[in-house]
Amino acid sequence: MKNKKLFLLDAYALIYRAYFAFINNPRISSNGLNTSAVFGFTNSLLEIIKKENPTHLAVVFDTKEATERHIIYPEYKAQREAMPEGIREALPYIDRLLEAFNVPKIFKNGFEADDVIGTIAKKAEKEGFQVFMMTPDKDFAQLVSENIFIYKPASKWQRASILGKREVLDKFKIEKIEQVIDFLAMTGDAADNIPGIKGVGEKTAQKFINDFGSVEGLYENLDKVKGKIKVKIEESKEIGLLSKKLVTIITDVPLSFKTEDMKIKEMDVDKVTKLFKELEFRTILNKIIKKNEAMKINNLNKEELLKETDFQMSLFSEKKEINILKEDNYTIVKEKNNILKCINEIFEAKQYSIYLPHYKNIKQNDKLYGFAITVNKKNYFILNILDNLKMFKEVFESNEIVKFGYDIKRILKYFSKININICGDLFDTQIAHYLLYPEKRHDLEVLAENYLNINFQNENDVFHKEKLTDQSINIVASYAIQRAKIILDLSSILEKELNKANLGRLFYDIEMPLVKVLSEMESEGIKLDVKNLNKYRLELENEIDEIEKRIYNLATVKFNISSPKQLGDILFNQLQLSKKPKKTKSGQFSTSEEILLKLKSKHPIIDEILDYRSITKLLSTYVVALPQLVSSETKKIHTTFNQTVVATGRLSSTKPNIQNIPIRTTKGMKVRASFVARNSDYTILSADYSQIELRIMASLSKDLAMINAFKNGIDIHSATASKVWSVDLACVDKTMRSKAKAVNFGIIYGISAFGLSQNIGISRKEAKQIIDQYFEEFSKVKSYIDESIEKARKDQYVETLMGRRRYLPNINSKNAVIRSVSERNAINAPIQGLAADIIKKAMISIQAELQLNRMKSKMLLQVHDELIFDMYSEETEMLREIVKRCMENATKLEVPLVVDMGEGENWLQAH
Description:
Elements (H helix, E strand, L loop, with lengths): L4 E6 H11 L14 H17 L3 E5 L7 H5 L12 H17 L3 E2 L6 H14 L3 E5 L13 E5 L8 E3 L1 H8 L6 H9 L14 H11 L2 H6 L8 H7 L1 H11 L21 H11 L2 H10 L10 H5 L24 E3 L2 H14 L1 E5 L14 E6 L2 E6 L2 H12 L4 E4 L2 H9 L9 E3 H8 L7 H9 L6 H7 L7 H28 L3 H21 L1 E3 L1 H26 L8 H11 L18 H6 L6 H19 L1 H4 L7 E2 L2 E3 L9 E3 L11 H7 L2 E2 L5 E8 L2 H10 L2 H8 L4 H9 L9 H15 L4 H8 L3 H14 L1 H17 L1 E3 L5 E3 L8 H37 L5 E6 L2 E7 L3 H13 L10 E6 L2 H4 L1
Parallel strand pairs: 1-2, 1-4, 2-3, 4-5, 7-10, 8-11, 11-12
Antiparallel strand pairs: 5-6, 8-9, 9-10, 13-14, 13-17, 15-16, 18-22, 18-23, 19-20, 21-22
């Protein structure tokens, strides 16, 4: 066999690496399984198969049995923590993965994986193989030769790389590969608890190796070593020689495995499918099947497998497939008779599903425009001919007919442009699934696979891969109808799940009515003062030019200030602002804001750099970007509100992200001032809930001290300071109030003593004392927090008063870091979620009154706890009364809801 390539994977090194890569955002399946380790390991395996085309492959594991290293040095790896729960749970799945891929799992009791890999590598090299050891472990460098390489897997910061002899010698700055062992022995290894030679670091080890050749050579020439280090080296002789034995990889492990046993084999598609469906690895499974990942799959015709159709065969379900529908399975509605037939079907059924393709994907070919309707198992594709749409107006606007869809807000906006207002009950499958599983994906493709065992290409793939012409109407129609059918099938399933989880009221009374409200707000848009913003742009650009000149003058050289690498070189090599500058994982000097703030007192250039970054970000993100989002048709900005993104129930927005419009800095405020009323007959009205989350905490905890403060109109932060520091209310100063404010809001988010100390610049001890005193004074708050966490441990979810759930699969994790995140969510989610529910209810009520009274004033934006209105001057008193009443009476709590209102020519003046 020519070009024999053997890849040996260091199993646990890759598994641990994968697990911790997701430590801050672990991958959790719908049944609560942490799949991070399996997912990362699977990707590593596929990376090799796909990119490197090995002829042979094996995965090598450590065992629990002690090795010779443990016997001669009991402290070897003794400091290592127990295997994380998430990894232990992953191991059976990794075993199944290897079995499904027909990849051998190799181990030898009494030996480490390093030794087994070393033995196989040396043996395979003699048999004419090129051997690649896939591992991030530097110890394997000692095995590298002309035909043995280290394959470092890709990471977030670096591509995969291959280390041969030259790369190893350059890395360790030595002359012979054999000296890697001496380098490792001298420097030791904290991860394996190998002590090394006392006082010898990397640079010293390199010098000694270059001078004396090895550990033994160093001790033979100890008389040539000068200074205090000589004594340390002499004292470390025994441990130094032992360290060399510990780091040396054994290459003669008795193994029965032959290289022929590692030859790449066909994967078992049934086992792969079953496993990946269980783990919910849909994307990976798609790629394996679709691209064949350089492997043949059992009993499947490759030509049929790779054939591109508009609806590919689903290889992930039990022989369920989606193909292009035959033309006799649907009707393309062009003639009046067919239109009337479809309309009659709808009025008889009292319900239908609708799907509207994204027309940007069919290159604005208006001859293909249309929408799909499924009713009574009959399928129609209605061409977007204006006469057709007029005939359907009655169907769309009927209050007696239920409409099922996906992302219905987009459909409402589309038809509103041609004066068709979709009325009646709506059922949005995307929102239904979001309420059931707020932290999961809600793509229609995902829902179809999860609930119906159907797999199909996404819309972008279908329309972009086909050369759509005027005659391609059947492709578009078939695709749209398939989705309309799926939506109808999903709706019945999701509706049952909503009712079972007691989420029906939240869905029908809040989320679905809100869809219409948001549709109208988005269509209305808000005016942007582009002229003023462009003027401000020139101001900022001039200011940036001046800052650049000052920075260059302070640095005595011109450089790219926006380049972290060049900036790091100026700060730490040229200006020497730190003796031990922190580096990033890519090896560059870190120039993060955190680092720069610590250096502020060292040099005036730091303040200039911070100003430069702040202003350039403001310029690019808002001042330049916002005018580009103004509609040429309406001359307004039309943001998109997202109902299915934030797990707590809050809305988010895109294009632009309204929630992030600056407010805290003077320069940022000028951006907010560019959002203005439509004309001189209008002003901007802002209505903002006052401390709603703290009021909710008081109500949920039933803490009398908090309740009384709110009921009596006492400033809650001053009241908190008074109790925590045991002083009269009148004696509370600004510093006390500021600290109390940080505590109040911190408690809602489960803040720790360390977190509070960082927030307000005090010691951890003082922060702990403040928190302890807080809980002593507000004991019911402490009880509420403890009870919330305890209930979450039992139920594995928390919910708001209105039933909105946040699932917490890691609340009982043995990993303290992961568990603490869930505990904080257990405290905060019911509070933030209820605040979201309350403002949504208020929005629905306000919009209903605006329409009932046919008011010219419009609701434009929602930003967390604030609503923004375009207020018609003659409706000022009426609008303010409606808004205040609807917001303050949206729900009944133990304390009053209070709304602060302001108005002005622009958003800044109003807020």
